[in-house]
Amino acid sequence: DPDHVPLPELTTRLTCYFNDPNVAYVSAPQAYGNAVDRTVPKLAESQQFVFHSLIQSAANSYGGPMLVGTNYAIRTAVFDQIGGAQPSITEDLATGLKALTKRNPETGKEWRAVYTPDVLAHGEGPVTWGDYFKRQNRWATGAIRHVIAGPFIKQMAQMWRHPRRVLHYTLLMAFYPVMGLTWVLGAVNSGLFAWYGDSGTVVSPEHWILFYTWTIALQVYCFIAARRYNVSPFETTNSWGVFGMFMSVAAAPIYAASMIKSFVTANPTFDVTPKGKNSANDSLFTFRHNVFWVAVYVGIIWLIFDRERVAVETLAWPVIAGLLAIAPILIWLASRFVHWTRRRRTGSPS
Predict the structure, then answer these.
(1) How many other C-beta atoms lie within 10 A of the C-beta of residue 160?
(2) Every domain of the chain and the residues it spans
């Protein structure tokens, strides 16, 4: 991508895998060089850990890493065979999947992909929350549209000889809709209980807290233990990846909006992530989805108190979800305050 500066060894490290005649493309990690001193890029860089350090590397075992458009190499014969870049707002995903459904006409074997964990280019991550939300919205919308209106099901059927690839991409593509659906259903469930007082299976608070505490503890332990495989050169050494955990959950309102838009919009537009001077400053309108969900959860909490249904288990989801929805706004305001105090101290106009 134009917003990435290649390292001198990029060409050598990517093209060496083409000595295998059945390698269709080679992908490398995406890394944000501006994550060192900027808030949003730092958070976004940490969020990439699971995908670029774990998921992509694991996919090497069955030749199915995803084609990541920031820095990759693709065999020209494959590019011609599939008709070039595929028409999608996530063209890298669509192009890579189509390549993996084809065969090498010379060897008769199916094409496979390679992921190298070497960071071969330093990129520029989204500088503002608005830029970050645009990128997440495009990724989520493109992935969901590829499933519900694209050739995804047909492509999975064509990969039947590689069940691990099928499982890999099925779980991978489920991430955005599951995150969005969980966010929406959590609000619907909390709202119905606050209004009607109806609930599903009755579970004692003690058992509920015990189960989820151990579940979350196991997930966090596995996440932290896997941090030793982190490929990012820009994250703090030996960090726990807390920023990434936070961003994956805090982006849920965007994924919910993308999920809904994917079903009601036939042709979503390609929103290019603004860079440099084209990057607009954030405003409260940037966080309109967050403001909407904060209002929803404040209303649910008010109903719970108004109808005297107050309990730990009834307030847990609305309170946690409401805090997650408002957190990006608070971080933005805190960053503005810090920037303002620095300008006052230095006397700089910018």
Answers:
(1) 9
(2) 4-346
